[in-house]
Amino acid sequence: MCAGLPVKSRALSREQVRSPRSSGNSNSPRRTPMSLRHLPLCFVCLASFVVPSLFRAAPATPAGEPGYLFAHMTKEDYGRLYYSVSLDGLNWTVLNGRRRILPEYRGHPDVCQGFDGRYFLVGNVETGGDIQLWVSPDMIKWEKFGAPFHADLSPYPAVRGVGGYHGAPKLFPDRTRQRYVLTWHSSTETRDDRHPWNYWDNMRTYYIESADLLNWTPARRLLPFDFGQIDTILRRWGDRYYAVFKDERAPDFTWTTGKAIRSASAPALEGPWTEPGPRLTPNWCEAPTVIPRPDGMGWYLYSDRYVPHQMYEALAAPSLDGPWIGVKAAMTPNAKHGGMIPITRATYEALLAAFPPDAKAP
């Protein structure tokens, strides 16, 4: 039930219940105006229709205990791994004295908890753009999981022909089907500094699937839209998949959603996908990440706003369908591209102990 919707009438003062049309006879009955007498009942009736659909609960944090990890890079140290943590999803503390967590890591950090309880971190190989997975029982000590690999892009020779770089890979554990889904973006055009927009306008989102993170399906296009998309993440809510991504076209008066975060949904990864909605953020935002609110009453959407300043900004909504509104968050300064996940309070405390915020360099 929605907090704040009245379900009982509160006691009213004589001045509140006195009808302006009542006679001056003090023995006449004082009648509550019709609108006040029926207001609580109207709210209850309205709530019975609105609340179930609008406030369908988001997944709770593990064991009902609030806590979040934000694995990210920084503006000054691009492509490296840093940690920030939060208890409420809004106020964040950077860990390890603002130093790297895993010096060997390269990529756009993205972490998920696997079906067996272990954690998986996805990144890239520094040269060539292949994908490298890491595994950990606690997100404190990481080791490489398997050898670097590249997706089978044979169904898309135009992408394979220009190197098939796996840009910003994200790993989504689809618990409904017990399958891991790995998304990334690649372009059909080679990078040319003289015409940079051509490269980015031709970015598309691809995905592969696996039951064991070792054997992967051939690549498939995720979104059918004929404009550039990057930094796509997947979430499942109810019986639908949601893709949240950056519209990579350059913004102008005919394409106002350019360089902003948008979303679409579908009953299956194969579609059919809804047409992307309006922009959820201002222009010049990227690298979205989405977490359930700790109270289970909606979601937080963070995105990296890189023009005119560098900072992550937060939105909140009761549903992945929106509506989204801005909320105040105390984010790690200069944090860039990363992913957030819910964690237990015990995991939160363990990360604080392993990587103290005030840790000094050895």
The low-confidence parts are 1-55
Task: Calculate the terminal CA-CA distance, rounded to whole Å.
Answer: 52 Å
Would you tell me the overall average pLDDT?
Answer: 85
Total strand count, please?
19
What is the makeup of the main sheet? 4 strands, antiparallel
Shape: globular
Radius of gyration, in Å, reads: 25 Å
- Summed up, the helix count is 5
CATH hierarchy, class of the largest domain: Mainly Beta
CATH superfamily of the largest domain: Glycosyl hydrolase domain, family 43
- Biggest sheet strand order reads 3-2-1-19
Helix content estimate = 10-25%
Structural class: mainly beta
Tally of structural domains = 2
Task: Give an overview of the whole structure.
By secondary structure, the protein is mainly beta. It folds into two domains: 1-20 and 30-55, no CATH class; 65-354, Glycosyl hydrolase domain, family 43 (Tachylectin-2, Chain A, 5 Propeller), CATH 2.115.10. The chain is built from five helices and 19 strands. The chain has helices at residues 14-17, 34-54, 157-160, 196-201, 345-354, and strands at 68-74, 82-86, 93-94, 110-113, 119-124, 131-136, 143-149, 167-174, 179-187, 203-210, 220-221, 229-237, 240-247, 260-266, 285-292, 299-305, 311-317, 325-327, 335-342. It has a four-stranded antiparallel beta sheet, covered by helices on one side. It has a four-stranded antiparallel beta sheet with strand order 4-5-6-7, with no helix packed on it. A hairpin with a 6-residue loop joins strand 6 (131-136) and strand 7 (143-149). The chain is globular and about 50 Å long. Mean pLDDT is 85; it is low at 1-55.
